[in-house]
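Q: What does the predicted 3D structure of Transmembrane channel-like protein look like?
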Amino acid sequence: SSASLQILASMPSRTIGRSLGAIISQYCNRTARLRRQSSRPPLQQLCRAARPSLRHYDLETDPSRATLQEKRHLLVKELLSLSPSQCSHMLLTMPLGLAEKRILRQQLSGQRGPVRQRARGWAPSSPCARSRVCVGLVSQRHGSAQRLGGLGAGSSPTALPCSSPQGCRGLWYRLLSLLRAAQPGHYALKQIGGRFGSSVLSYFLFLKTLLMLNFFSFFILLAFVVVLQAVYPAASVSPQPFTGLELLTGAGCFTHSLLYYGYYSNTTLNDPCTSSPEGSVCPLPAPLLPYNLPLAYLFSVGVSFLVTCILLVYSVSRSFRESVKSSTGDLAIKVFCAWDFKVIQRRSVKLQCENICTQLKELLAERRSRSRSQSRCQRLGHGLVVLLAWLLALGWVSGCVLAVHYLLEHMHTGSGRWQQEAILLVLPLVVSFLNALMPHLFNLLAMWEKQDSPVTQVSVAIFRNLILKTVILSLLCYHWLSRSVICSTEECWETCVGQELYRFTVMDFIFTLLDMLFGELIWRLILEKRLKTKQRPEFDIARNVLELIYGQTLIWLGVLFAPLLPAVQMLKLLLLFYIKKTSLLRNCQSPSKPWQASRMSTVFITLLCFPSFLGAAAFLSYTIWSMQPSETCGPFRGLETIYESGKRWVLVLEKSNPNITWFAWVYQHLLENTCLLFFLSVALIAVIYFNIQVVRGRQRVICLLQEQIANEGEDKLFLMQKLRSVYEQRGR
């Protein structure tokens, strides 16, 4: 009603938005106070409120108000007394329209013109002074341009040297943007997020996380083990000819190479007396820093796992923190605050439009799925269908496990070399075929279940595939630890396990490419050419994410037996990134049910951390503490366990230098003490539990605050109705 509009118009927050003279008077007083201060405050301490209050300002409360033109002239006069950077910042924070700011800038430039002309008569006396003045002006202009929005995502000005803090800050921000743009797939990730949404984007971000983890592991092993063994090579074995089949089997000429455990020596690398015969006296002195390769091998693997554990825990905590930020108010934020006005290039503008549109679809679909309700009979029927689907899925998993077990029991080597290498490929071929086939059968079950929420559908598919891969990997680990692996030309069982894990990695990559070929490209051609439809296959997030977790688990299982497996995984992930991106953009369509993947990213990292990483760590821990190494090859030959090499090194260190007996005491009472490891594990689990509880507490606080905001809105509506009734009574 008109009465409510009058009451709203008389509120202080609405008055400053309507009165242009009030805004100019307020900022005139602000610039006057800033100019009168003896020490000017930094720009970060200035008020950035868009709708400030008008109280306690002399010009506004003065009964003899000045006209708008006089106030504008006075504001321009006060702005001229400030530095150019402060003047630009003040104009930027004013809640005025673009037309009014343009008028103020024209008046400022018109009055600064004569001042500059008068300043042209002055020139620095020395070349150094002239260059210093020029650099200062250029840096000042660069900093002002960035604060005014000139350094957007689509603009590309030249980063120049700086002599002021603002210019240095602008140069630093520009360098950071260039470094981020130089990352592999930077623009591709934006394009995928704009066209397919955050659900598909989460797969590629997860792939980049795996690439980072493998890079750190590869760098540690390369720096402390592989390079030093290459500098001091072991005794050479007669080389075998390269036939090309080694790229699939990992055997042949790859067997006696840096790729596998059996090639590495068990001596001190830089000791000149290592090659001397036993019983002879070595005339050369011992090195000052002896490099014990078995110890370096063991510690490098341990440090790589420790760094991976720290990065995974950090990723899980950060993902939990980001998932808490998502709330029901995201829709209003996307509608009113999502556009970035610094984007000016046509391609960037189109990409940002697609991204915002896809995010709005996701938010609306999530809100629509919450509002749906079913009757009791519908819920009961749906529950029976889900139960039958789970029974079928578990039956299929049991059949796959029995098939793999039967193959392990009845697999024998052939007589010829080609027959042996062909048999070596049978087990990885069958396991990779089952891993590629079963997700499609699980998708048929999902179509029968008809889950309403796409998040629930993806979660169910992930856990079904996880059960399949976990059971098969557990069976394979038991098979490897029982030393029943098939060796082609080597009796070193560690090398045979490394070769088998290499074959599993290569075969998994081949079946991933075949799945993209038949499941995406050929299926798209059938839909377009034969069926004459515009529909395309959708990107299966659950299957692709589980493939990444499965491949990374194979790498963690084989780090001890093949130190260069992280390099193979890095090459595989890079190829997968660009091949998957190309296939996605050309063959797939956006999800038919858009959904947000803020919590699914947390699920991906959690699955990578707990079943995958902890399972691989338990497998390697059992190998190090309990399994006897090979007698003829490897850095730990002749020992009862791999862990015994650390004990021997501590005893040798204690005998050679009695001053560091404290280190032996620390090793015996801290590192060998199982109680300490138990307490550390309990402390880690407690920290993770408390962090989860804190996250849940913050979620509850967010829900309570949202309810409080809704209640305050109802209170304001109630007060407005009361005020309107009072105003109408006074009008009568």
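A (community wiki): The structure tokens above were generated from the sequence. DSSP finds 25 helices and no strands in the chain. Confidence is low (pLDDT under 50) at residues 38-65, 115-127, 129-163.
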